[in-house]
From TrEMBL:
GO cellular component: a single term: cytosol
Chain's gene name: mgsA
Family, as annotated: Belongs to the methylglyoxal synthase family.
Name listed for the protein in its UniProt record: Methylglyoxal synthase
Primary role: Catalyzes the formation of methylglyoxal from dihydroxyacetone phosphate.
């Protein structure tokens, strides 16, 4: 196992499906002070809504269905995102369901904290690790990368 040290100022990715955007905005408003201590990144529409409602700076990527979920997944794999808050809609199929599954998968592969609902997001944002240093264990994928095909 290798390790990744997460410093106090974390990069948090915020994503929400259309029917969950209001939930994410309400959650973010409740936690505005805590979120302001970190770097925020979001898929397009979600990022715009957070900026409009909370007046916080957000690095906006593409909309999820246009590749924003994949952009966030790539940034997780590159070690540039520390936490993922992803309020996905379990009651409605999404046209980009494979991208959604891939994003959740890459979050697990790179062992980043993820929340998909308000309760878990509350636990994450209130954790002492959010404002402190945390050393995450990472699986060593060298054997996988160096395998002979």
């Amino acid at each position: 196992m290798t390790q990744k040290k997460l410093e106090a100022n974390k990069t948090i990715a915020l994503v929400a499906h259309d029917h969950r955007k209001d939930d994410l905005i309400k959650w973010a408003a409740t936690n505005k002070e805590a979120l302001a201590q970190h770097n925020l990144m979001a898929t397009g529409t979600t990022g715009r809504l957070i900026e409009e409602h909370l007046n916080l700076p957000v690095r906006k990527l593409l909309s999820g269905p246009l590749g924003g979920d994949q952009q966030i997944g790539a940034l997780i794999a590159q070690g540039e995102i520390d936490v993922l808050i992803f309020f996905w809609d379990p009651m409605e199929a999404q046209p980009h369901d494979p991208d959604v599954k891939a994003l959740l998968r890459v979050g697990i592969v790179w062992n980043i904290p993820m929340a998909c609902d308000v309760a878990t997001a509350d636990f994450l944002i209130s954790s002492p690790y959010m404002n402190g240093t945390y050393t995450a264990a990472l699986t060593d994928y060298d054997e996988y990368k160096n395998r002979k095909l």
